[in-house]
Design brief:
By secondary structure, the protein is an alpha+beta fold. Helix content is 20%, strand content 29%. α10 packs parallel to α12. Binds the cellulose synthase activator, bis-(3'-5') cyclic diguanylic acid (c-di-GMP).
């Protein structure tokens, strides 16, 4: 199968970002959960791993026939485990980031690694971890298909800079065609081109799911890696058709890679940031504790929000958690510490502070890890240090840096977030993707993928959609066939452009003469429109070059993969003709892109309202949300304002994020008449409408949000409050928005945090109020509509009259009367003048 192996991780980054793509991920994850149960029976039938040390020792060897010495000369290399039929009734939980004992001395020796006597940079330190990730976690949203006599497919994975792999086991789940001849057919497992194992294809297991363990030599594993499965398939010993449909094998995306790591020491250096606190090679969710003083001030919290949004922008699709710890650091691991001369965490040694300072220091033994220190003599300097880290990290070096001057340049403009498509000019595809990612080759090539993050308030009513000036190059077909360039957005089909053949006669040569190149390719240019309903805030444009495989028949040898498809980087998408106008509240826009807060990339028009007696759970949820804002915009929230309920009246010109549980956040009672939810501490009141009984995708129609009036107000007293997310118009100023995060420390707080980071749950958050129980989301109200943005008078008149036919009729009658009156006066004037004459 195709050549898109190196794109697998990219697909994971991109596919998970589309709103429609999340539905695909949901289906894939359900499949993976069902298939992951193979591990239990596999453990029962395959050669078990007796201990953690035994796992490392056996995993460190190359798969080879029994009795063959490995490359290190230590012992015999075990063969791949015996194939085990897949049993869907076995259930087991995959291992993720499970700590393991220290490496066995024999394993370290077998790998040729010298055990250090002192902790020097680049040497192993005691301890390590183990994790098991499925192919779906690495980005394979669908099973890997292998076709033909030499089909190949796989996944990409990477290793953190501060770790080294000391053991690797591939848990492979696959099936293959009953037509394969076992004597001359096989499956090869390759790691970075090295053969890790060769798997037979016995006829008695053909057509069924098979589970097998493959030990991988960790010396094959580098910083960035490709793990491929190759099918060497034959169905006859005579002449055969390389494209015969009976030549197939399928590798389940529930297959997993079990890796054991050892940690490496490194010297503290600001130039290495964001490492080791965040490493782009790590596909896990970022979890980085923030250490705050016991009573942090507003500017300290603003500084923490800036740093959290910076790390959130780096984490991107992974998501990021920032557990807030007051006055003490975690027992071990990396953390970020905020301190001033007067307010410093008691459990952390802080050096003398001479100004806004950023430093990286090793943790004191026995704790392992590093601390990122953000320091200042006062809160203003602390915030300056945080801004310098967010916008100037690339110029820092050494163990510590003191900021002597930070001059902010021009303020941010609306909708100028680095991650968002500009809406004031055409945008080149070369700005959105690398040039090498815009070219594919082969008959089974993957689609060209371009991520499109667009503001959710683009007004595209009654338009053809966003225009794309598409320029592309294709291989001219030898004769007319079904070859085409298929264009889709997420999972929605847009258009198919046929790929033509060579001119049939000299009379047709004119239209190809200027475009056919020496390599038998031709250029084309088309205008394509993306329908408004498909252009969601997190969209992915997919351009798939489908080349019809010619029927060469048998005895013609292997089919040459000599077809290419390329998208010109100068192709453009233009959103400049669409105004910004949207009906709110709409929690879907907030959940998927942080809108309307992210309208300003630095959140300079956003105020965060915390309870007067805020605790670590409130701070953690606030930092999590700042990380989500940074992931949406790609820019740190350098302009966010943090305040309390008694000072909120001074911030009427800002959009509000309100945090706090009932009884602790007074605004939930004070603004009861403006919200779909209110509370006085004991009782809770919910506004209910008919949307509970509607279909899941009722929310977005041709005209945007479809509103239904509230039907009831329900008040109750409950011993355990659910997690709530509710949006409404700010009572302080028209056309300003507020979103309230209502949860209490404990389960509801955990439910809300998990929902905001779960790509499967986020699409369920819609309307004006969502109640969250675990992974279940219920929409209970759509609120009272208000509008943000502006339309031209002509466009607003068209839009308003389209929804009120009676008003259009009355307007027509009124206009007719006016015109009749004008004609009447004009004719009377002409008649009077004629009579005078």
């Amino acid at each position: 199968m195709g050549k898109g192996i190196a794109r697998t991780t990219t697909q994971h980054l991109q596919s998970g970002r589309g709103m429609t793509g999340w539905a695909t991920r949901l289906r894939s994850r359900r499949l993976v959960r069902g298939l992951a149960c193979w591990l239990a029976l596999q453990t029962a039938f395959a050669a078990p791993l007796a201990s953690a040390a035994g796992l490392v020792a056996s995993s460190a060897r190359v798969a080879a026939p029994p009795g063959t010495p490995d490359a290190t000369g230590v012992g015999n290399v075990p063969a791949p485990s015996a194939a085990v039929p897949f049993d869907p009734n076995a259930i087991v939980q995959p291992v993720l980031a499970t700590p393991t004992p220290a490496l066995a001395a024999s394993s370290v020796k077998a790998l040729g690694i010298k055990t250090p006597t002192t902790a020097e940079p680049g040497t192993l330190v005691p301890g390590g971890r183990r994790q098991t990730l499925t192919f779906a976690d690495f980005g394979a949203l669908d099973p890997l298909q292998l076709r033909g006599t030499d089909g190949q497919n796989g996944i990409a994975f990477s290793v953190r800079n501060d770790e080294v792999v000391t053991g690797a086991v591939l848990h492979l789940i696959y099936s293959y065609s009953p037509a394969l001849l076992p004597a001359i057919s096989q499956l090869k497992v390759l790691v970075n081109g090295e053969v890790a194992a060769t798997l037979p294809v016995p006829h008695e297991q053909a057509g069924m799911l098979v589970a097998r363990d493959v030990s991988i030599d960790p010396r094959f594993i580098t910083e960035f890696n490709h793990l491929n499965v190759q099918l060497i398939g034959h169905y006859t010993q005579q002449c055969e058709d390389p494209a015969n449909s009976s030549l197939w094998a399928t590798v389940s995306n529930a297959s997993s890679l079990d890796l054991t790591y050892a940690s490496l020491t490194s010297k503290p250096d600001l130039a290495a940031l964001p490492q080791p606190f965040f490493d782009r090679r790590d596909v896990r969710r970022l979890e980085l504790p923030f250490v705050l003083p016991s009573k942090p001030g507003s500017e300290t919290l603003e500084a923490a929000g800036i740093v959290a949004s910076w790390f959130g922008a780096l984490a991107g699709y992974r998501g990021a958690l920032f557990p807030a710890q007051l006055d003490e650091a975690p027992l071990s691991g990396n953390a970020v510490v905020f301190a001033t001369a007067d307010q410093r965490p008691a459990g952390v040694a802080i050096p003398a502070i001479s100004g806004p300072t950023i430093a990286v220091v090793d943790r004191q033994a026995p704790a392992r890890g590093k601390l990122l220190l953000v320091l200042g003599r006062n809160e203003a300097e602390l915030k300056t240090a945080a801004k310098a880290l967010g916008v100037g990290q690339s110029v820092l070096s050494g163990e510590s840096a003191t900021i002597t001057q930070l001059n902010e340049l021009a303020p941010r403009a609306p909708y100028d977030a680095p991650n968002w498509l500009p809406t004031n000019r055409p945008v080149r595809f070369g700005e959105l993707a690398e040039a090498r990612d815009l070219t594919v080759s082969g008959y089974d090539a993957d689609a060209v993928r371009v991520n499109l993050r667009v503001p959710p308030d683009l007004f595209m009513w009654h338009t053809s959609g966003a225009p794309i000036d598409l320029r592309y190059r294709y291989t001219v077909r030898p004769k007319p066939d079904r070859s085409s360039l298929n264009i889709s957005i997420n999972d929605g089909f847009v258009q198919s452009l046929p790929i033509p053949a060579k001119p049939a006669s000299m009379f047709d040569l004119g239209r190809y003469f200027s475009t056919i190149l020496p390599d038998k390719t031709a250029d084309a240019r088309r205008t394509v429109h993306i329908p408004p309903l498909l252009l969601t805030p997190r969209a992915q444009l997919r351009l798939h070059f489908y080349y019809d495989i010619p029927d060469t028949g048998e005895c013609h040898g292997r089919l040459l993969e000599n077809v290419v498809g390329s998208i010109d980087p100068n192709s453009t998408i233009d959103l400049s003709s669409f105004p910004h106008y949207m009906a709110l509240p709409d929690l879907a826009a907030f959940a998927n892109s942080g809108f309307p807060f992210t309208r300003m990339a630095d959140l300079s028009e956003t105020a965060v309202v915390l309870p007067n007696d805020a605790d670590s759970s409130d701070y953690s949820l606030y930092l999590l949300e700042m990380g989500r804002m940074g992931a949406s915009t790609g820019y740190p929230a350098t302009g966010v304002t943090v305040t309390t309920a008694d000072q909120v009246d001074q911030l009427a010109n800002k959009d509000l994020m309100i945090f706090g549980a009932p009884g602790r956040q007074p605004l939930l009672q004070r603004w009861a008449k403006s919200m779909p939810f209110s509370s006085d501490g004991d009782s809770r009141t919910f506004e209910l409408s008919d949307i509970v009984f509607k279909l899941e995708d009722w929310w977005h129609g041709e005209r945007g949000v479809e509103r239904a009036p509230a039907r009831a107000d329900l008040s109750l007293v409950s011993s355990n409050g659910a997690a709530l997310l509710t949006g409404f118009e700010s009572p302080l100023q028209k056309e300003r928005s507020a979103v309230a995060f209502v949860s209490a420390a404990g389960q509801s707080d955990a439910d809300l945090s998990s929902a905001l980071l779960d790509a499967d749950v986020l699409p369920q958050i819609q309307g004006a109020m969502a109640v969250i129980h675990g992974r279940s989301v219920t929409i209970t109200s759509n609120g009272t509509a208000y509008y943000i943005g502006h339309l031209s008078p002509q466009e607003y008149l068209r839009w308003a009259l389209s929804s009120h036919p009676l008003l259009l009729l009355l307007g027509g009658i009124f206009a007719a009367l006016i015109i009749a009156a004008l004609f009447y006066r004009a004719l009377r004037s002409i008649a009077a003048r004629r009579l005078r004459d």
